[in-house]
Amino acid sequence: MSFFQGFKEFAIRGTVVDLGIGLIIGAAFGSIVTSFVSDVLMPPLGLLLGHVDFANLYINLSGGHYQTLAEAEAAGALTINYGSFIETIIHFVIIAFASYLVIIQMVKLRKASIESTKIKTCPFCFSDIPSRAKRCPKCTSSIENMKTSDEQTVVRIRASK
C-alpha cells in the first residue's frame, strides 16, 4: 500500500470526517458566542455597572494618560487589557457550559444504549456475554436457551468438547 492510499483510507474513515465537521461547527459556535458576549451580554452588564465599556478597561504601564485603549495603542503605550480578559473569561465559561451540556447528553445516550444491551453470565467461566450469544467467547462453551442475567435461570446448557 502506498503512502497516498494509506492516507486516503485514513482521511475517508468516519472518525476523521466527524472530527473535521466537529471542528468546523465548534469554530462557528465560538463566533456565535463571541458575538453574543460582545454585542448582547456585555453592553447591559456595562450599563448596570455604571456605563462601563469593557473593551476600554485597561491599565496603562507607560505613565501617559489616554482616554481610550485605541489612543493608548496608537501612541505605542504598554497596556494590560483586563477588560478584554474579562470578556474572554465569559466566552470560555459559556463555551465550557455548552460543551458540558452536550457531553452530559452524549453520556445519557451512551448509557441508555448500554443498558438496552442484555447480558448473561456464562455458567462455566462466569464471564459476561451478550444475551444473544450461542457460544462463550472466553471458554468456548456452547450455551443454548439460556435466560438473561436478570432472570438468572439456565434452561439448557451443552458443554463443548
From TrEMBL:
Keywords assigned: Cell membrane, Ion channel, Ion transport, Membrane, Transmembrane, Transmembrane helix, Transport
Cellular component aspect of the GO annotation: plasma membrane
GO molecular function, one term: mechanosensitive monoatomic ion channel activity
Gene3D superfamilies per UniProt: Large-conductance mechanosensitive channel, MscL, domain 1 (1.10.1200.120)
Superkingdom as given in the UniProt entry: Bacteria
Subcellular location(s) of the protein: Cell membrane; Membrane
Annotated TM spans: 12-37, 89-107
InterPro entries cross-referenced by the UniProt entry: MS_channel (IPR001185), MSC/AndL (IPR037673), MscL_channel (IPR036019)
Stretch forming the signal peptide: none
Membrane topology classification: Multi-pass membrane protein
Family membership: Belongs to the MscL family.
Quaternary structure and partners: Homopentamer.
PANTHER family: LARGE-CONDUCTANCE MECHANOSENSITIVE CHANNEL (PTHR30266:SF2), MECHANOSENSITIVE CHANNEL MSCL (PTHR30266)
Stated role: Channel that opens in response to stretch forces in the membrane lipid bilayer. May participate in the regulation of osmotic pressure changes within the cell.
Protein's UniProt name: Large-conductance mechanosensitive channel
Organism: Salipaludibacillus keqinensis
